[in-house]
């Protein structure tokens, strides 16, 4: 552990042995966060992780005061199955970890959409915890209220997110995967449901929400530093929108750029997040303010306009594991929060 008052942190991301050997702050995607931490007097070092040299990573993390983690739930077939226990062990030794894997399991999974469905960001959301529940309940729900969007509990980049719509009265459906480059398929509903049963492995589940017809209006990504909004991103996404005739890899099927905006850009949404929804989420999920992720985001789709014609917002997902890119003003806020968290963690260790 460091002896300086500002502490030492490791910034962890996934890579191979060569990436670990050559890792540097200036050459990483996190360079602006490294710079912001340095401006706060915090020593920061890169920490490249892979399962085959997890022991080396463990030894490195035990020598720092804190670790900030950027590792997706799914990446090239790899999961966090081995990383999360390592981070729990490091945290138990007194190293501050953001985001702690136990907090990710509360708010960084699709189940949070069901657990918080009664909040103002919620919608008609259901959950299937077993294949039997899924087979019994989903066909009728699809018949009554379609199209539906199914989401596996842990994933990123659209993996395991599907738009499902019946074709007439037959047991046929159109399905469209949210992963980039996907084409719409037509197949029997039972075949599609069988394909999804792998999502129940390792205590997984499937969350079911109605498709939001205002999806073409774009998605608003609300970037958070703990419990405060630090910026927004607006993007015209193409996931779950049928690709043009030219195909899913054509230019017309590609999402638009994410346009970053300051925290003042969406005042109504910011007010809802800071004053209502985040405090309510924390209470509902049992998350203390000191355990909130240093950086996370909530993705919103436009819901139906209210009686006055104002926009409403529907939570699409919460991203906690690897939030990038981030708005220009976010690194400074991240560094400020890291300094406060490290001071608290180091004070607790000295008691």
Concise overview:
The chain has 351 residues and is of the alpha+beta class.
Protein model, in words:
Helix 2 (31-39) packs across helix 10 (330-350). The mean pLDDT is 94. 37% of the residues are buried. This protein has a six-stranded antiparallel β-sheet with strand order 5-10-6-7-8-9. The protein has a five-stranded antiparallel β-sheet with strand order 13-12-11-14-15. A four-stranded parallel β-sheet has the order 2-1-3-4, with helices on both faces. It has three domains: 8-99 and 331-350, Rossmann fold (3-Layer(aba) Sandwich), CATH 3.40.50; 107-121 and 214-320, D-amino Acid Aminotransferase, Chain A, domain 1; 126-210, no CATH class. The chain has helices at 17-22, 31-39, 54-61, 83-92, 101-107, 111-115, 131-144, 189-196, 267-285, 330-350, and strands at residues 8-14, 43-49, 66-70, 96-98, 126-128, 148-152, 161-166, 172-177, 185-188, 206-210, 219-225, 228-235, 259-261, 296-303, 312-319. It is α+β, with helices and mostly antiparallel strands and 351 residues long. It has ten helices and 15 strands.
């Amino acid at each position: 552990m460091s002896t300086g008052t500002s502490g030492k942190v490791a910034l962890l991301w996934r890579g191979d042995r060569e990436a670990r050997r050559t890792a540097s702050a200036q050459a990483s995607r996190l360079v602006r966060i490294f710079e912001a931490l340095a401006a706060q007097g915090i020593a920061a070092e890169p920490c490249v992780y892979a399962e085959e040299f997890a022991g080396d990573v463990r030894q490195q993390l035990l020598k720092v005061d804190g670790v900030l983690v950027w590792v997706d739930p799914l990446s090239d077939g790899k999961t966090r199955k081995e990383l999360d226990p390592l981070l729990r062990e490091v945290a138990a030794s007194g190293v501050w970890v953001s985001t702690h894997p136990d907090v990710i399991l509360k708010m960084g999974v699709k189940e949070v959409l069901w657990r918080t469905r009664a909040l103002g960001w919620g919608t008609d959301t259901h959950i299937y915890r077993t294949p039997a529940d899924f087979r019994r309940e989903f066909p009728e729900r699809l018949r009554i209220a379609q199209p539906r969007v199914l989401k596996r509990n842990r994933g990123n980049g659209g993996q395991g997110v599907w738009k499902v719509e019946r074709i007439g009265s037959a047991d046929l459906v159109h399905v469209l995967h949210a992963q980039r480059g996907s084409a719409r398929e037509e197949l029997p509903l039972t075949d599609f449901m069988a394909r999804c049963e792998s999502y129940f492995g390792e205590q997984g589940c499937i969350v079911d929400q109605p498709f939001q017809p205002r999806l073409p209006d774009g998605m608003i990504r609300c970037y958070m530093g703990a419990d405060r909004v630090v910026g927004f991103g607006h993007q015209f996404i193409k996931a779950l929108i049928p690709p043009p005739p030219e195909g899913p890899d054509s230019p017309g099927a590609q999402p638009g750029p994410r346009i970053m905006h300051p925290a003042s850009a969406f005042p109504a949404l910011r007010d809802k997040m800071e004053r209502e929804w985040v405090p309510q989420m924390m209470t509902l999920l049992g998350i203390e303010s000191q355990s909130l992720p240093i950086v996370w985001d909530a993705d919103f789709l436009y819901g139906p306009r209210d009686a006055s014609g104002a926009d409403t917002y529907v939570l699409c997902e919460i991203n906690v594991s690897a939030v990038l890119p981030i708005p220009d003003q976010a690194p400074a806020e991240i560094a400020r929060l890291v300094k406060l968290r490290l001071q608290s963690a180091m004070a607790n260790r000295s008691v």
